[in-house]
Design goal:
Layout (H helix, E strand, L loop, with lengths): L19 E5 L4 E5 L5 E6 L10 H19 L3 E8 L4 H9 L4 H18 L7 E4 L4 H13 L3 E3 L8 E3 L15 H10 L15 E6 L14 E3 L1 H13 L3 E7 L6 H13 L4 E7 L2 E3 L2 E2 L10 H6 L4 H9 L7 E2 L2 H18 L8 H12 L4 H13 L7 H13 L4
Parallel strand pairs: 3-4, 3-10, 4-5, 10-11, 12-14
Antiparallel strand pairs: 1-2, 6-7, 7-8, 8-9, 12-13
Helix pairs in contact: 4-6, 6-7, 9-10, 10-12, 11-12
Bound molecules: 5'-O-(N-(L-cysteinyl)-sulfamoyl)adenosine and zinc ion.
The site of zinc ion has 3 residues, from loops.
Length: about 400
C-alpha cells in the first residue's frame, strides 16, 4: 500500500566520497553500512497501528531518516521497505477492548502515522506492506521452513499451532544483547510463550496460530488462522530486498527477540545473513517510564500538531538526542527546540553570513559518524552565531539543514 508524499531533497555539494558508519552492537564498534556505490537496501520495522504516532515512534523513524538522508548525500540510491503489523495480538486486543473492528482501527491509525511522518518530513519507504496483504507469501515462507525441518506443528488437539525451531540454525543468542537467563523473560515480555506445552524449545516462536473464537483467520494449508509476529517481517523484508540487505532498523526493544528471530528464520530460508547490520534506536520515556502503548503515558505527534506545534521544532527536539540514547521527553525540550528553530530561521534570513563550507563539512562528518545529530546541530548553532558577509552562505546552509537533517527553515 502507499506510504506518504515525499519531499524534495536538495543536493549539497561534495558528498559523493565517503561512507556512512553506524555502531555495530555485535562487534561493539563503528562499521560502514551500505555499498560503496549503487543501491543501499533498508528494512525498517513499521508500526503496529494503534496509538500512533507517539514521540517514541517519531524518534525512531526520524533517526532512521538520518541514515536514508546520509546515504543519499553519499550518492547512493536507497531501496527502502517497511511493514505495518496490522495483524497481531496488541492491535486485536485494543480493537476488542474498544469494540472496534480491527481493520478500521488499523486503517485509521496508519493514516495518522502517514500524516505525522509527512509533517515531520521523514522520507517515505518505497511502499508500506501490511501483514494482512501478504498472507500467501507468509504461508509459503512457513512451508519452506517446514520443508527444511525448521518449522513444526504442535500436537495440540484444539490448536495445532506452528512454531519456528530456534535450534535449526546457529545459536539465536549469538550477538543478542541479552544473557541466556534473561532471554526467556524478555521473550515472554515481548509476545513469546516459553511455557507453551509441547514446544521443542522454550524460545521457539509462533509462526502460525490457528483461529481462536473472535479472532480473524485466513484459510491456508497451515490451517485457518493468522501469522505470528516475526515471520511477517522476515517475509516482507526478503521479498522486497532479498537476502543480505544492508540494515534492519527499529527501536532497541526489537533488539531481542524480534530481530534475531527474523534473522534466524531468514538464514534457514536463504542460507545467507538477513541484514548485514542492525540499527537500534533508544527508548523515549515520559513521566518516568518508557513511553508505551501498554502504560498509556503517551504524547502524540498529531496532538502536538493540533496544538499548534511547528513539526520542524518537534523534529529538532528529537534530533537533539543521539539515536542510541534513551531519553525523557519534557515540554522544556520542545521549547528549547522552538528557540533553536527561530535562531536558525533568523540566521538563514541574513543577507550574508560566514561561508558554508565549514558547516557543511562538520554536519556531514557528524552524520557519517554514527548519525551524530547532536554534533550536527551544534555545528549549525556555531555557524548561526558567526558573523560573515558571504551572500551565498545562508541559502547553502538552509539547503544543508533541509537535505541532511530534514529540517526546512
Ligand atoms: N510492529 C512492530 C515492529 S515489526 C512494532 O514494534 N511496532 S510499534 O508500533 O510498537 O513500534 C514502532 C517502532 O517504534 C518500533 O521500531 C519500536 O521499536 C519503536 N518504539 C516503540 N516505542 C518506542 C519508544 N518509547 N521510544 C523509541 N522507539 C519506540
Ligand atoms: Zn519488524
Amino acid at each position: 500500500m502507499r506510504a506518504w508524499e515525499s519531499v524534495p531533497v536538495p543536493t549539497v555539494p561534495g558528498g559523493d566520497d565517503g561512507a556512512v558508519a553506524i555502531y555495530n552492537a555485535a562487534q561493539a564498534r563503528l562499521l560502514p553500512v551500505g555499498p560503496p556505490a549503487g543501491t543501499a537496501r533498508l528494512y525498517t520495522c513499521g508500526i503496529t497501528p494503534y496509538d500512533a504516532t507517539h514521540l517514541g515512534h517519531a524518534f525512531t523513524y526520524v533517526s532512521i531518516d538520518l541514515l536514508v538522508r546520509a546515504w543519499r548525500d553519499a550518492g547512493l540510491e536507497v531501496r527502502y521497505a517497511q511493514n505495518v503489523t496490522d495483524v497481531d495480538d496488541p492491535l486485536l486486543e485494543r480493537a476488542e477492548a474498544t469494540g472496534r473492528d480491527w481493520r478500521d482501527l488499523a486503517v485509521e491509525q496508519t493514516e495518522l502515522y502517514r500524516a505525522d511522518m509527512a509533517a515531520l518530513r521523514v522520507l517515505p519507504p518505497d511502499g508500506l506492506t501490511a501483514v494482512s496483504a501478504v498472507m500467501d507469501d507468509i504461508t509459503q515462507t512457513i512451508q519452506a521452513l517446514h520443508e527444511r525441518q525448521a518449522a513444526y506443528q504442535l500436537a495440540d488437539p484444539d490448536y495445532p499451532d506452528w512454531y519456528f525451531s530456534v535450534t535449526s540454525t546457529s545459536n539465536l543468542l549469538d550477538g543478542a544483547p541479552v544473557s541466556v537467563p534473561e532471554a526467556e523473560h524478555v521473550f515472554a515480555e515481548r509476545g513469546g510463550d516459553p511455557e507453551r506445552a509441547g514446544k521443542r524449545h522454550r524460545l521457539d516462536c509462533l509462526v502460525w496460530r490457528q483461529q481462536r473464537p473472535g479472532e480473524p483467520g485466513w484459510d491456508t494449508p497451515l490451517g485457518r488462522g493468522r501469522p505470528g509476529w516475526h515471520i511477517g517481517c522476515t517475509t516482507i523484508a526478503l521479498n522486497a530486498l532479498g537476502p543480505a540487505f544492508d540494515v534492519q532498523a527499529g527501536g532497541s526493544d526489537l533488539a531481542f527477540p524480534h530481530h534475531p528471530m527474523c534473522a534466524a528464520e531468514a538464514r534457514v530460508l536463504t542460507g545467507e545473513p538477513f541484514a548485514r547490520a542492525f540499527l537500534h534506536t533508544g527508548m523515549v520515556s515520559y513521566a518516568g517510564e518508557k513511553m508505551s502503548k501498554s502504560l498509556g503515558n503517551l504524547v502524540f505527534v498529531h496532538q502536538l500538531r493540533a496544538d499548534g506545534t511547528d513539526p520542524m521544532a518537534l523534529r529538532l527536539a528529537l534530533l537533539a538526542h543521539h539515536y542510541r540514547s534513551d531519553w525523557e521527553y519534557t515540554a522544556e525540550e520542545l521549547a528549547a527546540a522552538q528557540a533553536r528553530l527561530q535562531r536558525w530561521q533568523a540566521a538563514v534570513a541574513r543577507p550574508g553570513a560566514a561561508p558554508a563550507d565549514g558547516v557543511i563539512t562538520a554536519v556531514r562528518a557528524a552524520l557519517r559518524n554514527d548519525l551524530d545529530a547532536p554534533a550536527a546541530l551544534a555545528a549549525v548553532d556555531d555557524w548561526a552565531v558567526t558573523p560573515g558577509s558571504d551572500p551565498a552562505a545562508p541559502a547553502a546552509v538552509a539547503a544543508l539543514v533541509d537535505a541532511l537533517l530534514g529540517v526546512r527553515l
